[in-house]
């Protein structure tokens, strides 16, 4: 029994979430559900990043005030997370008073420590990212710097502002990246190290003039400024668990924090976040799990690339949230971008959910009802399947503990495949009393179901009800532990998709 605090990035709600947000959030949810299933105490947080210029503008364009705009968008995000069965414990909003208070106190502390100072700031700026880009980051198109994410021309911006002395934390940061395994997979730590060694660490702006950005937390020591949205946003990870308010809760969860992020915000979550924590005398996170992107025809899926796949379209096409969750976790990759398409999604859904797991449940359910009146008592297991079960659980557990959800899914579905092959081999429908075979198959289904539960909670709960077993920790559910199965129905879990 352990404790784990899992976070997603907080999202910028200038538009509804799309498949990219779902990819990160479902992944974090699967980790949270897995840890609950194996008995850990979990605090899982997601939320919205509600301040800043982009939202100020989005609200202006709609002719509403930012406050009602972000209120509405918080509702939109929560409804999507409900649609996808995201089991968060807190949905944090950076406009909440407890968060804003932490932002003010934190920046005041840095000011007092002389880690924040006033100076002139200038550079190439992307309005969409709300971010300055260095020469190393931007791309040159027709002689002009362009945003590496949006591909739009950058603006040259100069303003008097406040800086955070990020440069003071270079040695601390290099030491962390070189000598700890916080950043996972390792390749991302190397990426940040290379950049730090090449460019060094430059001080960063932590405030915006109020006349330009008024939708933000007021800078407590200079009312002409608001706190820069990145600073405000990063602090959600500590304010959300009671920093400065509930020390006991904060210490308990911070100790085991696992941040999940996409690689586009790697720099902010290492160079900037680790340094900021140090500046506040808070230890670095336990883990920063970084994932690569879903791409479509070579481009990162996103609003600006115009290749967004709508979450509701996916949910409709793949029956319900389970189909979407399974598909996205099956292709999930921390280290490499994954090219996705409807063809790929259809084929995973059809071959693995419908033909493998769904079909196994249906076949065994029907056989058990027909051959044994739906009641199967405990028998010794087929030895080969028993050892396959043990292997699968070991592979699953290793994969989950190293955050490799895709391999965990694979271990589970592989067991279902073995069970299907076993049916074809032993042909229980030809036997007078196939209860030993059926018991073996039910045990294989049960363990597969437990392993898949964090990924497809709906279908697995339905199987557990239909076959009368408990959803429990798969790592501790040894085969042959159910005394009696009562098969109440043989559900059809997933309808195959045919044609377009
Ligand atoms: Zn941009």
Fold and architecture overview:
The longest helix is centred in the C-terminal third of the chain and has 31 residues, at 342-372. The chain has helices at 19-37, 53-62, 66-83, 97-112, 170-179, 186-199, 229-234, 236-239, 247-254, 266-279, 311-317, 321-331, 342-372, 383-401, 405-426, 435-452, 457-466; strands at residues 3-7, 41-48, 90-93, 116-126, 131-133, 139-141, 144-146, 155-164, 183-184, 204-205, 207-209, 225-227, 257-262, 287-291, 294-296, 299-300, 338-339, 375-377, 484-486. The chain is elongated and about 85 Å long. A hairpin with a 4-residue loop joins strand 4 and strand 5. Helix 6 packs across helix 10, helix 13 runs antiparallel to helix 16 and helix 15 runs antiparallel to helix 16 (435-452). It has 500 residues and is of the alpha/beta class. It starts with a strand and ends in a 14-residue tail after the last strand. The chain has a domain at 342-486: Orthogonal Bundle (Isoleucyl-tRNA Synthetase, Domain 1). The strands form 6 sheets. Strands 3-2-1-13-14-9 form a 6-stranded parallel beta sheet, sandwiched between helices. A 4-stranded antiparallel beta sheet has the order 5-4-8-10. A 3-stranded mixed beta sheet has the order 16-15-17, with no helix packed on it. The protein has 17 helices and 19 strands. The mean pLDDT is 95. The chain binds zinc ion (ZN). Zinc ion (ZN) binds next to loops.
């Amino acid at each position: 029994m352990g404790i784990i605090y899992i976070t997603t990035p907080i999202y910028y709600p200038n538009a509804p979430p799309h498949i990219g947000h779902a990819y990160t959030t479902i992944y974090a949810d699967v980790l949270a559900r897995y840890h609950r299933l194996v008995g850990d105490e979990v605090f899982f947080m997601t939320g919205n990043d509600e301040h800043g210029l982009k939202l100020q503008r989005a609200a202006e364009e709609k002719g509403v005030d930012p406050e009602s705009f972000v209120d509405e968008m918080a509702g939109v995000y929560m409804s999507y997370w409900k649609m996808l069965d995201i089991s968060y414990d807190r949905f944090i909003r950076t406009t909440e008073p407890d968060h804003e208070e932490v932002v003010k106190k934190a920046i005041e502390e840095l000011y007092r420590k002389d880690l924040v100072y006033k100076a002139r700031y200038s550079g190439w700026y992307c309005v969409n990212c709300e971010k300055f880009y260095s020469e190393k980051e931007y791309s040159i198109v027709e002689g002009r710097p362009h945003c590496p994410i949006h591909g739009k021309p950058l603006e040259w911006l100069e303003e008097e502002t406040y800086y955070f002395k990020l440069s003071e934390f270079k040695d601390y940061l290099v030491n962390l990246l070189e000598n700890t395994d916080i950043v996972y997979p390792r390749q991302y730590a190397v990426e940040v190290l290379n950049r730090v060694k090449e460019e060094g660490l430059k001080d960063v702006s932590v405030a915006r003039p109020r006349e330009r950005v008024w939708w933000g937390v007021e800078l407590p020591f200079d009312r002409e400024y608001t706190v820069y949205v990145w600073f405000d946003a990063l602090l959600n990870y500590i304010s959300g668990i009671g920093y400065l308010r509930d020390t006991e809760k904060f210490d308990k969860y911070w100790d085991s924090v696992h941040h999940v992020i996409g690689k586009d915000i790697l720099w902010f979550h290492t160079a900037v976040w680790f340094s900021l924590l140090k500046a506040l005398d808070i230890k670095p996170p336990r883990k920063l799990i970084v994932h690569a992107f879903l791409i479509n025809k070579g481009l990162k899926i996103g609003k600006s690339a115009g290749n967004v796949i709508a979450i509701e379209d996916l949910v409709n096409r793949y029956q319900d949230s389970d189909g979407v969750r399974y598909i996205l976790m099956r292709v999930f990759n921390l280290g490499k971008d994954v090219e996705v398409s409807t063809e790929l999604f259809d084929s995973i859904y059809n071959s693995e959910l419908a033909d493998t797991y769904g079909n196994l449940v249906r076949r065994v359910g029907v056989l058990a009802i027909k051959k044994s009146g739906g009641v199967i008592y405990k028998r010794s297991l087929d030895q080969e399947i028993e050892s396959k079960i043990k292997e699968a659980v070991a592979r699953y557990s290793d994969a989950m503990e190293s955050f490799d959800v895709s391999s965990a899914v694979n271990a589970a579905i592989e067991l279902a495949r073995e069970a299907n092959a076993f049916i074809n081999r032993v042909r229980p429908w030809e036997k007078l009393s196939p209860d030993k075979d059926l018991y073996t198959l039910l045990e294989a289904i049960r363990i597969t179901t437990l392993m898949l539960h964090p990924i497809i909670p709906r279908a697995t709960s339905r199987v557990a009800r239909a076959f009368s077993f408990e959803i429990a920790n798969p790592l501790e559910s040894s085969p042959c532990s159910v005394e009696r199965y009562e098969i109440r129905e043989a559900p059809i879990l997933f309808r195959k998709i045919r044609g377009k």
